[in-house]
């Protein structure tokens, strides 16, 4: 079962989404929070597989909550579920450490699909969000990746671009999972990007992957 923590300050939204998700054979909502502060406490105590995080909440917003959770628990999988697509929400949320970004206008089955994909180590972004990231990446000067990454890092980046999880990469290259995580962290640092999605976009932009 994929254990989910759902943070949203609208009770009816929580009731509706939680009821649908809990009806799935592989997903269960184990806790709900109506503000960011409670979400942080519950996330660090329960360590759910997935955290669904609203952005605008009382006391503490979703961006601050996401940042606090990731700072203390870097492996957390946080899916932003919001009505906002403006730059002041999208970029800070992703930079805070959110793994995926969905809209409340998405169908319930799309939220469930995003949960399953994020649980497998993939990032799920609304098309509009991907477009925003692409635009921002175009503003960065193009550099030769071969001058920045080692051969092993380039190999791992190509596997990341194929949608493979850290565990799948470790299995394919016959190296430890911890080693893969170190390489991925080095790749993000060298490319000066915040997450795997931005690293893949950077790789596409430089022609490393098709």
Automatic annotation (TrEMBL):
Keywords of the record: DNA-binding, Phosphoprotein, Transcription, Transcription regulation
Residue numbers carrying 4-aspartylphosphate: 54
SMART domains: HTH_LUXR, REC
Subcellular location: Cytoplasm
Domain called HTH luxR-type: residue spans: 142-207
Chief site of localization: cytoplasm
Record-linked PROSITE patterns: HTH_LUXR_1, HTH_LUXR_2, RESPONSE_REGULATORY
InterPro entries: CheY-like_superfamily (IPR011006), NreC/VraR/RcsB-like_REC (IPR058245), Sig_transdc_resp-reg_C-effctor (IPR016032), Sig_transdc_resp-reg_receiver (IPR001789), Tscrpt_reg_LuxR_C (IPR000792), WalR-like (IPR039420)
Pfam families associated with the record: GerE, Response_reg
Domain Response regulatory: 3-119
PANTHER family: TRANSCRIPTIONAL REGULATORY PROTEIN YDFI (PTHR43214:SF37), TWO-COMPONENT RESPONSE REGULATOR (PTHR43214)
Name of the protein in its database record: Response regulator transcription factor
Species of the source: Virgibacillus tibetensis
């Amino acid at each position: 079962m994929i254990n989910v923590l759902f943070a949203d300050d609208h009770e009816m939204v929580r009731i509706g989404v939680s009821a649908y998700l809990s009806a799935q054979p592989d997903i269960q909502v184990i806790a709900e929070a109506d503000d960011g502060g409670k979400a942080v406490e519950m996330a660090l105590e329960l360590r759910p597989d997935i955290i669904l995080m609203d952005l605008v909440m009382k006391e503490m917003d979703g961006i601050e909550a996401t940042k606090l959770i990731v700072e203390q628990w870097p492996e957390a999988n946080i899916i932003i579920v919001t009505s906002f697509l403006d730059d002041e929400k999208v970029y800070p949320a992703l930079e805070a450490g959110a793994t995926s970004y969905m809209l409340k206008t998405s169908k319930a089955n799309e939220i469930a699909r995003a949960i399953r994909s994020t649980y497998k180590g993939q990032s799920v972004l609304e098309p509009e969000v991907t477009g925003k990231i692409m635009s921002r990446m175009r503003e960065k000067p193009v550099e030769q990746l071969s001058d920045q990454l080692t051969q092993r890092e380039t190999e791992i980046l190509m596997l990341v671009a194929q949608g493979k999880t850290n565990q799948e990469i470790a299995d394919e290259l016959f190296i430890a999972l911890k080693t893969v995580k170190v390489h991925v962290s080095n790749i993000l640092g060298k490319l000066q990007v915040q997450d795997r999605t931005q690293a893949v976009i950077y790789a596409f932009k430089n022609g490393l992957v098709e």
